[in-house]
What we know:
This protein is an alpha+beta fold. 29% of the residues lie in helices and 20% in strands.
Amino acid sequence: MPSPGPDGIDIGPGLGPAADAGRRPGLxxxxxxxxxxxxxxxxxxxxxAMAGFLIDWxxxxxxxxxxxxxxxxxxxxxxxxxxxxxxxAEICAQGGNTGLVGGSVPPSDRAGSRPxxxxxxxxxxxxxxxxxxGRCVGVQAGATxxxxxxxxxxxxxxFGVDLASRHSATAGGVVATNAGGIRMIRRGNTRAxxxxxxxxxxxxxILRRWTSLVKDNVGYDLPGLLTGSEGTLAVITRVLFxxxxxxxxxxxxxxxxxxxxDAVELIGTAASRGLTVEAAELMTxxxxxxxxxxxxxxxxxxxxxxxxxxxxxxxxxxxxxxVELLQGAGxxxxxxxxxxxxxxxxxxxxAHTETIARSSVTPVVKLDISVPIRALAEVFDELGAxxxxxxSPCRPVLFGHVGDGNIHVNLLDVPPDRxxxxxxxxxxxxxxxxGSISAEHGIGRAKVAWTHLGREAADLATMRAIKGxxxxxxxxxxxxxxx
Length: 483
């Protein structure tokens, strides 16, 4: 019988180890050795128990594997990878499995005879004591963003990465994808937070670049290279993160506005008046209406075509400065302010992803893109119209990080045979405006066919050369980034 995945999604027959295990030389011996390393309970081969590891959060990407390995330490990962290397087994490293481009699950095909193992970091959740003076902390790859921030907060610091999926997104996952998140406008992306890294290479050797030094310029930036590599160069096991000092006080405002340009102008004015923009998010009435229909509070009394969420901090009376800022804002329809963290106001924005997923009759086509800020208004108009054509009807819902030009394009009710056509249409708009087909979610498996839109031939060849040098047998996350 097929195995049910999350939310009852049928992941289909043959996704466990039994379907064609006899064709994969050395599998039984490999599984026996892996059990010796991590214990019988942490080598999962039962199809039902494996199901959740073989389908991604969106439900669009489903994979096949022979086993899920759940190690506890870097040493166990290293020993396991050595055993996998002996039989040329493929390895897919997986953290919280909250990715949206299929990069956290193994391939769906079993064309070759290689064994395939998912290495889950679910048990690797240790967080070291915070270095308060150096403002950093070492964590295992399975530690969640929420747990890291809580540990930092206990000593008056904060983790610079923040995501709506903070309760399940893990250190290894945000590093592997170079996640951005809602604080990128203030703190930069994940790469800006990585001081050091520990990872297991394709042959089982442990690479450790671990120093809290502000200046350490010896050779290539290997932590920077592994950040954003999507599991294709090494299995990340530990990370040394930079921590930040949070603002003493902040004000969160949500304003209903007439135009995208009004949001861009508001952000610029805030900065010019000496306010520090901690976060800036843009939403549409389509998204707010969905969120409200699912029980969340509307952020403003009056509706508008667009909504901007702005969190600001600064010296002096921040609330008065924020009120004055909004009073002079162009295109303002309505606004509400609350002292930070203002979870209720943030809730309208953070509920978008889950609400959108529940509102579509087909798996949502999620296209994370970025464009120059000067082109945001025009791109919003063009993307909002992609579902108007009769040949590819759909419901677009757009939202994103307006301060850095990042738009999350969500296409609902897309017929399966029209996914590629609509993706082509969206990416055509993006590239015409000098944008990127991947702002912060990575390429994964979903966007491999379109990487040529974002990188020239010499660039892609250089990336392939790096992949070939670190993973010559092509066993680490095959099919991700490269066809």
